[in-house]
Structures are given as C-alpha cells and as structure tokens.
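This part of the workshop introduces the protein records we will be handling. A record pairs a protein's sequence with a compact description of its fold. As an example, a complete record with its sequence and its structure tokens follows.

_____
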Amino acid sequence: MKADASNGYEGLDSGKKAVPRKGGWFRMISILMFLSLAAAYLLYAGGCSSLYYYPDSVRYQDPRVNGFEYESGFLEVEKGQKVHYWYFPSRGGPAKAVVLHFHGNAQNISSHYSLSSWMANYGYDVMIFDYRGYGQSDGKPDPESTYLDGLAALKEASRRAESMDVPIIVFAQSLGGAVALRAIVDFPDKQRVALLVADSTFASYRGIVERKARRILFSPLSVIVSCFFSNAKSPEHVLSNIAPIPVLVMHSRTDGVVEYVNGEEVFSGLKDPRHFYEIPYGGHLGWSSGGSSGVDRDLLEIMKLAVDVYGTGENPFASP
C-alpha cells in the first residue's frame, strides 16, 4: 500500500510505525477544534439549555395525595413575570423556622417538593418555588433570572418568617445550590438566616459545563467549550462573603451527576462557620426517606442546633 499524502501519515507501506506527516496533527487538531466550537455555538445559540436547564410543566404529583396541605401562589420577580411557589405549613405546632427550598435541575416543584415537604412534619414551614421557565413560572431560565428569582423567594420567606418571629433555613440542592449561594450574598436580610444547606451543588456554572464536556471531549477542548457559557452569577468568587451565615455542605462520593469534587470546591471557598457532611449513600439527591433515613435525622439535628443558637453568634457546628 502506497502512502497517500492526503491522509496526513507516511510509512504505511514500509512496516514502520505510522507517523504524522508535517501538518497532519495541525489539520487533525483544527478539525477537532472546529467541531468543538461548532457544538459550543449550537449550545450557546440554543440558550445553553442542554447543559444548564431541563424544565417542564408536567404535574408529576399532587402533595394532597400524600397528605400535605399547601398554599399555591405566585411572586412577581420582574414587571410582567412571576414565579410559582408552594407553601407547606408546619404540621407540628407553631413553626420553628421557614425552610426555603431551592430545588435542583429538571422538571419542576411537583417532582422536587417531596425532598423538603417532610420537614413540615417536624415543625417547619416549607416553601419551594420554581425558577423562570419551570412549571407554571413565566419566562425562561438563565443564570441572571434564576438569581433574581432566588432573591424574590428569599424576600418572601423572610417576610413570612418575620411575621412569626422565626428564622429562615435555606435548603439548596444541586443547581439550586449555585443559585442560593450567589443570591444569599446580595440578600439584604441576611440576619434572618439561621442556616444554609448546600446539598450536592457546585460553585461555577462554567466549571460544571467544562466537567460535563470533558466526558466527550479531551481537556483543552472542553475548556474552550465552557468559555461559551456565562459565569457572571456563579458563586465561586463570593463564597467567602456568605459568612457569618452558617453553611452546611453535603455531598456524596457516589454522586455521578455533580461530582464530589464540586462539593469540596464549595466548602474550600467558604469561611467559618461551615461544616462538611459526607453523604454515605444515595448518589445524587437520593439520600432522603421523608424523615426516616440516617441522613434525614442528622440534618434535622443540625437544623435544630442552628435554630437553637440563632441570634446568639454561636457556631451550630461546634462540638458540645
């Protein structure tokens, strides 16, 4: 077989190891870069939804079927746009705190509410809301709009908590963790927050895209692809400004959606008071059993401690 100069290799008929002709590697790399940039452009032009957001408006469950009464309402976030929320009152007497749930990616509150509504059985009011584009909420999601949605939800939770003279606990999962960690920095009523739970989340939108892209592209090109995505409302550069709000970071080593290293990065960017809780099972957001799992009980204990020391300046994570 004769060497074909057009294939970029030589030595094919000599029995020697094929080596690229001069310019062969350059052409190959150029083609790979072109394909990667083309893919990035298509993702960018499509609003990045294939890597960031997976909303829908399907009603997956009605909480009343599971015995939960709730209030359904809307919050105005910008002129002409509203986001939808559900509010579950405490079923164990007066509320100890208002838990505000920033849910994870995909679907809407009707598929996520069960991850927090069980807390109402333990004396907490629980509020969960949909970002723009999810469920019955108006608009489309992007880092800027979800950040504004988070601020609006924090304001409403604070209003309700103040009326009962109780604090807020922010319970933020996966995508919702990135939203909450950024929004809380600009929330004017921080003193109302007794605890922020950052469960299975990440610090950088661009970073999570780069890690996902790395699964199908080699590292330099995955970095190039990630550069097409906005990082403007990522919390990575402001995590240290969350203090003195206590932050509990939760993550599982078996999380295949948001890898464990993301939780480590969030924790390293925070200042005390902070605590890292390694989830021993469950993968991504699969640890809860409605209050009966070991992780549920541990979380309830930390929540109780945070409420007990709220307003005293004490660290809820300090050893007794």
Observations:
- The longest helix spans residues 24-45.
- The chain has a mean pLDDT of 86.
